[in-house]
Amino acid sequence: MSNIEHPFHALTFELQQGAAQSKLRIHQLWAQLAGTAYVPEQPVLFSEWPIVASQTLQDKLMQRVESLCHVLKPHLQTQVMQTKGWQYGSAADVLTVDYAIICDDEHGEGDAAWDIRLVEFQAFTSLLTMGYRMQQVHSQLWPQLADCPPWTARESEHDWLRICRSWIAGGDSPALLEYRPWQRGTLFDLHAASVLWNLPIIEPHQITVDDKGHLFSNQNGAAQQHDKIFNRLILSELDDGDQFLHQLQSAKLQWHCHPAWYFLVHKGLAAELTIPFEPENVKANQWRSLHLPAQKLVAKNIYSCGGKDLRIGPEAQELDQLEQAENWLVQPRYRPYPVMNNKSGEPVYAEVRLIIQMNESTKPRVAMQIVRMYYAAQASASFFQGREGEGSTILHTPPSS
C-alpha cells in the first residue's frame, strides 16, 4: 500500500517558509538554555528546520516500536542480567531505537511512496536532554510548536520533567558516570544532562565500593556516597583488566542505563529475532541465506557506533572475508526517502530516534523523538558539515485536532 501523505506535517513547511532561522541562531539558543559551553565552535550539530510528524508517520512509529518492545520483552528482564555476574539485578529501563524514512520500493508507486525501516536499537539513553532543550528553543522561536512536544503522552513540560527526573535522576544522591567525559564528542549532551538533572559527573578512577556494596566517589579530596547512577559508561572502553567491572558488580544501588544492558540488548540481537514489519537480519557468516546480492546488503559491526565499521553495498568477497563474522550484522539495504530539498534542490533524508522509558509492569513510554536530517549515505553526527537543514533536531508530534 503506497502513502500519498508526506511523512512530515504541513506545519513543517509553513513554519520554514514563514519564519526561517539560521543554524547559528539555533546553536546559540540551545547552548544558552542548556547552560553549557561544551558545544562545537562551528554550528554543525543542530538542524535549523522545525520538523513535525504527519499522523501517518507518528502512527507507524508507534506501531513499530510497540511490536519491537513486545518481541524484546524476554530479553529485557532482570533475570537476563543476573546471569552475567551482577549481584544486584535490574530490568532494562530504556530502549533507544532508530528508524529510517525510506522509499517503499516494494509496494509504492513512484516517488510518492515511503515507509520506515528499523536501523538499530540499544538499551542506552542518548540525546534525551538535547531533545528537551531543543523543545524549549523551538517553543521560543515557533510558539505553535509548544503544544506539539517531542514526546507522545501529551504531558506538560512540568509533568515530563517530573517523570523523567524520577526515571533518570531519582534517589537522594545521584551522579552521572562516564569514562573520560571531557574528551567526548557527546559532551554537549552529557554536560547539559548534568546541568538539567543537577548531577555531578564522576569517572571510574574516582570510584570505590565498600564491603557493604556502597558506592562512593572522591571529588576534590572528599568522599560522597551515591545511591543512583545515570550511566553513560561503556565498560569495554576501559583498559583496566576488568578491575572496575568487578567493583561495580558488587555495588548496591539504583541504575539508569545499567552498564550490563549495553551488551545484552543491541543491534546484533536483530539477527536472533523475528521482528514484525521488518526484513530478516542475519549474522555475516549467514549472509547468503538472505538470497540477495551482496551489493543489496549492509553489514555493521555489532559493537561499533557512530557510523564506524559499516559496509554499504559490499562485494561478496568482502563479506566472506570479514574477521569474526559472528560479530557483524547483515541487513537488506534500503533507499532513503528524500523528505526535503534544500534551496539548491539537493535531497535531504531523515532518520528518527525514539528514546523509550521501559518498565516491567507498565506500557513503554516514548520520552523523546529526535530526527537527524542528513545528506548522502549516513545519518551519524560525525558526518555533519553544517549544510542547510542538516543536523539533529526533534520530531514534534502532530498538532491535535
Please render the helix and strand layout as text.
Blueprint: H1 10-18, H2 23-34, E1 51-52, H3 55-72, H4 78-82, E2 94-103, E3 114-122, H5 128-141, H6 157-169, E4 174-177, H7 187-197, E5 201-202, E6 207-209, E7 215-219, E8 222-226, E9 228-231, H8 243-249, E10 254-256, H9 261-264, E11 282-283, E12 297-301, E13 310-312, H10 316-320, E14 328-332, E15 340-341, E16 347-357, E17 365-374, E18 391-396
Parallel strand pairs: 1-18, 4-5, 4-9, 9-10
Antiparallel strand pairs: 2-3, 2-16, 6-7, 7-8, 11-14, 12-13, 12-14, 15-16, 16-17, 17-18
- Decide which structural class fits the backbone: alpha+beta
Question: What is the general shape?
Answer: globular
Q: Sheet bearing the most strands, described?
A: 7 strands, mixed
Tally of contiguous helical segments: 10
Plain-language structure description:
By secondary structure, this protein is α+β, with helices and mostly antiparallel strands. The chain has one domain. It has ten helices and 18 strands. The protein has helices at residues 10-18, 23-34, 55-72, 78-82, 128-141, 157-169, 187-197, 243-249, 261-264, 316-320, and strands at residues 51-52, 94-103, 114-122, 174-177, 201-202, 207-209, 215-219, 222-226, 228-231, 254-256, 282-283, 297-301, 310-312, 328-332, 340-341, 347-357, 365-374, 391-396. Strands 1, 2, 3, 15, 16, 17 and 18 form a seven-stranded mixed β-sheet that branches. The chain has a four-stranded parallel β-sheet with strand order 5-4-9-10, covered by helices on one side. The protein has a four-stranded antiparallel β-sheet with strand order 11-14-12-13, with no helix packed on it. The relative contact order is 0.19. The model has no long low-confidence stretch (mean pLDDT 92).
